[in-house]
Amino acid sequence: MEGNMFCFQCQEAAKGTGCILKGVCGKNAATARYMDLLLFVVRGVAVMADSLRRHHVGVREEVDRYVTDALFSTITNANFDDASILERVERGIRLRDMLKEDARIQGVELPEVDELEWEGTRDSFETKALEVGVLRETDADLRSLKELAVYGLKGMAAYHEHAMRLGFNDPEIHAFMQNVLAEVAFDRLNIEEWIQLVLRVGNVGVQVMALLDKANTSRYGNPEITKVNIGVGPRPGILISGHDLHDIEDLLKQTEGTGVDVYTHSEMLPAHYYPAFKKYKHFIGNYGNAWWKQREEFASFNGPVVFTTNCIVPPLENAPYKDRMFTSNSTGYPGCRHIKTGADGHKDYSEVIALARTCQPPVEIETGEIIGGFAHNQVLQLADAVVGAVKSGAIRKFVVMAGCDGRMKSREYYTDFARSLPEGTVILTAGCAKYKYNKLPLGDIAGIPRVLDAGQCNDSYSLALIALKLKEVFELDDINDLPIVYNIAWYEQKAVIVLLALLSLGVKNIHLGPTLPAFLSPNVVKVLSDTFGIGGITTVDNDLKRFGLV
Questions:
Q1: For residue 32, which of 5, 96, 190, 384 is within the disulfide window of CB 3.0 to 4.6 Å?
Q2: Contact in structure between 487 and 399 (CB atoms under 8 Å)
């Protein structure tokens, strides 16, 4: 069975077409097959939930939590643990069958679809997994649109789960996600109908990001301009990665007074921007760079590392930090200790803290500060200065360089692009893409930093709000008339929902790199190009010219 896989959901898809032997991310063929099977089971649960809703029958609350978690666990670099993936498969089969019984009791006729008819016996897992991957759809364009929708849902699930953990839960979002998954299971929509459904995914993506923004700011306050230390202290530390602010809140509370410091890594950097976390004196700073450098940076950190979400880079066999890795939520890695969420919604980090106290302090790998905290509320407070700089000509253009970082050498393009921007340009960023340029000495324009970091990838919502506000201030009819250029790096599925959200807001002429998604067929690329002006990147010099930046 080894080698039987096909995955093309992330930017690193082998040869720009898809991974067939082993994922470039480190996912092995068996794990890929189990994820395909899990998504098949999730579709079965979604078909049942959607059918019950259509007949005005209430759906078990467990369905929403299950579907959200299962989708999140299949995001690139989130979960490499076969046992935890198969546990979700079995849980989904039990839930699907309970929903089928609910339907029988309520007199709801079941639709005829493989996702419901498969019996789900353990001895048939391997065989079924080989039948239900993305290549089950033979029409390249339908496959492209279906997967585009599903990858958008994966990003949506990630953002909704964060909001749910903070008490913000929208039943309509769950119902929509499950409806789309049900449509994937059926063969009843044509190309045009799928295009429209994909755009609706983007529209609901805006709602999800708005909900998460409300959850984060209601709980922790509006992000504010903050200088973040990138050096280290003399005490042992815990390094926390990912996106889940609820988790870092638990960790900060439990480490207070223990003699252990807390540091952020990669996408957790923006936690420093929230007022609620600034009271913790042992919240020292940010250690290192984007997710893909973790093998070297985790080794020099010396203390435990907690993954709250993706991205996990599988450690080498002799990695000195392997025994210090902890996973939580939808993440998993074989041999790593998994921190479960308690019945009260919180996590117990006592094991992590005890281990940290036996470790050496982090090795300092850099010194200084980086500045961030330019989410929509903060930027709107600077609106007069920003508008004044635009009107005076001091700021000629904004360049949105949000999205993801990655390990491909071609991504050095973004560092070179940022370094080559003329002085009258300001970078608007969110997500780990910022690590390609947030430590460059780019200076400021009339006191406004030339890199305005809004936060995590979901905070691309802030960038959209800033653009809409500028459109209003300058009394423009079209958001595309603003002096804004979109040069976005992507890597995984949260970037997909951000892209679809931007399209739903009417943003056009977005350039994606370092490569266009492998899951987009030539015909779908043409539709996106003709309708929205989506294109790829070329060279720094050429792109500076065609974006009107020189």
A1: 5
A2: yes
Work out whether the CA dihedral 424, 428, 433, 435 comes out positive or negative.
positive
Instruction: Confirm if 240 and 268 have CB atoms less than 8 A apart.
Output: yes
| pLDDT for res 187 | 86
Structure-block tokens of residue 500: 């679809």
Interacting residues of 405 by C-beta distance below 8 A, sequence separation 6+: 289, 290, 291, 292, 411, 431, 432, 433, 434, 435, 436, 489, 491
> What sections of 393-509 are H helices per DSSP?
412-420, 460-473, 493-504
CA distance 340 to 356: 19
Angle at Cα 517 formed by Cα 147 and Cα 510, nearest 5°? 110
φ, ψ of residue 98 to 5 degrees: the values are: -65, -40
Alpha carbons 218 and 457: distance in angstroms, whole number: 19
Q: What's the rounded Cα separation, in Å, for the pair 12 and 4? A: 18
Looking up tokens 């779908």, which residue turns up?
A: 524
By three-state DSSP, how is residue 73 classified? helix
Q: How many angstroms separate the most distant Cα atoms in the chain?
A: 70
Cα dihedral value 201, 202, 206, 211, nearest 10: 30
Q: Strand pairing partners for 427?
A: 399, 451
Q: What would the two tokens of residue 146 be? A: 């279906």
Token reading at 414 = 């973004």
Rounded CA-CA distance 179/388 in Å is: 46
- Residues 6 or more apart whose CB falls under 8 angstroms from that of 165 comprise 244, 246, 345
Residue-level pLDDT at 418: 98
Using the CB atoms, write b or e for 27-48: b if 16+ within 10 Å: bbbbbbbbbbbbbbbbbbbbbb
Segment holding 238, helix H or strand E: strand 237-241
Residue 348 CB partners (closer than 8 Å, separation 6+): 254, 339, 342
Q: Which residue has the tokens 């709602």?
A: 207
Residues 407, 292 contacting (CB under 8 angstroms): yes
Residues of the chain with pLDDT under 70: 1-3
Q: If you ran DSSP here, which 8-state letter would residue 487 be given? A: E
Among 466, 512, 430, 522, smallest CA distance to 159 is for: 430
Alpha helices in 123-226 (DSSP H): 125-131, 140-165, 171-185, 191-220
- Asked whether 304 and 355 are in contact (CB, 8 A), the reply is yes
Query: What's phi and psi for 478, nearest 5 deg?
Result: -130, 130
Spatial separation of the C-alpha atoms in residues 236 and 263, rounded to whole Å: 10
pTM: 0.97
Q: Measure the CA–CA gap between 488 and 462, rounded to whole angstroms.
A: 15
Instruction: Return the amino acid letter for 76.
Output: T
Whose CA is closest to 277, among 304, 246, 301? Answer: 246
**pLDDT value of position 3:** 63
Position 1 scores a pLDDT of: 45
CA separation for the pair 327, 338 (Å, rounded)? 5
